[in-house]
Amino acid sequence: MANASSKKQATANVEALALLHKVSLALNTLYVLSYFFLSRPATIKPFLFLSLPAWIIETMLERMGRPKYAANGSLVNPGENLAQAGLTEAMWDVVYVTFIIDVLAIVVGRNVVWWLYAVIPVYAGYKAFGLASPLLGKGAPAPAAAAETEPQNRRERRRTRQSVKT
Fold first, then answer.
1. Contacts of the segment 69-75: beta carbons below 8 A, 24+ positions apart
2. Most buried one in 28, 54, 107, 162, CB count within 10 A?
3. Are 77 and 67 in contact (CB under 8 A)?
4. Are 113 and 104 in contact (CB under 8 A)?
5. pTM, entire model
């Protein structure tokens, strides 16, 4: 079967995007309904402002992951792999954190929950520090330093034993 992997990726992308849109629609509708009918939380401004990144990312995922078909129905482009690691994974994480905060804001009924959105830049800083620490000379000791502290082969161990005896 020609282009089997492309067809499989296109199918996986369509399923992931459909689930993303359904969950997003359900949670956003539930939040707005709870605001209007239950008056929880007190204001909708944080929801509108802090859900904006998730909505933009949802649009970006839609554009890059949606497969493109020719007029005759054949697959032209399966779209980017939405399950790949890296930036796409980070985009999904932002969407998931936003969904979790939406649910918590509905349950708790206060906008204080939106402070949990600070988890995203804190985690990004943690990852950036992990990438930058070897470049800055911080972190684990260099292998050369470890080699000085402990003999690596039999000849070096014998030499250190003989120097200790004399």
1. 75/3, 75/6, 75/7, 75/10
2. 54
3. yes
4. yes
5. 0.71
